């Protein structure tokens, strides 16, 4: 790994994540997370759910902050 590359975030390590419109479309796990130790990627309709959404696999709660 080079100095400009970063390690992926641990998947599903937090119970709540704050996301911004720039992060949409929202998926769990997030694109910055390692996928090898997580569940299949699922897209969450956070905009149509009042700015909050829960992952049906891991229960992570996402909140749209802007």
Shape: globular
Per DSSP, what share of the residues sits in E-state strands of 2 or more residues?
A: 25-35%
Count of helical regions: 0
Question: Could you list the spans in which at least 5 consecutive residues all have pLDDT below 50?
Answer: none
- Mean pLDDT rating: 84
Structure summary, number of beta strands: 5
Major sheet description: 3 strands, mixed
Task: Give keywords.
66 residues; single chain; 5 strands; mainly beta; two-stranded antiparallel ribbon; three-stranded mixed β-sheet; globular
Question: In terms of topology, how is this protein built?
Answer:
Elements: E1 16-19, E2 26-28, E3 42-44, E4 52-54, E5 61-64
Pfam families: zf-CHCC
GO molecular function: zinc ion binding
InterPro entries: Znf_CHCC (IPR019401)
